[in-house]
Amino acid sequence: MPTVAQALECVFVCQMLSNLYRDIVVFRYEASTKEIYILTAGDIQIVISPAGQWRFI
Q1: Quick check: helix, strand or coil at residue 10?
Q2: What's the pLDDT at 32?
Q3: Tens-digit pLDDT profile for residues 4-57
Q4: What b-and-e string marks burial along 5-44, b requiring 16 or more CB atoms within 10 Å of the CB?
Q5: pTM reported for the whole predicted model
Q6: Best CA proximity match to 18, nearest among 47, 48, 38
Q7: How many CA atoms lie within 13 A of 16 on its CB side?
Q8: HSE-up of 49 (CA within 13 Å, CB side)?
Q9: How far is CA 8 from CA 2, 17, 42, in A?
Q10: Which of 1, 4, 10, 53 counts the highest number of beta carbons within 10 A?
């Protein structure tokens, strides 16, 4: 299960991507690493850690 910090940051990141008119192609929670992965149609890749910190990959 995602953490509360991840969930809040996920909403922020998805809203940011929406404001940039980017389609979200893949949205996945990886249980083994406890990270959320987001891939957009413009090849933007974002990982959100359990602490709620996001980064581009």
Answers
A1: helix
A2: 96
A3: 999 999 999 999 999 999 999 999 999 999 999 999 998 899 999 999 999 999
A4: ebeebbeebeeebeeeebeeeeeeeeeeeebbebbbeeeb
A5: 0.91
A6: 38
A7: 10
A8: 6
A9: 10, 15, 23
A10: 10
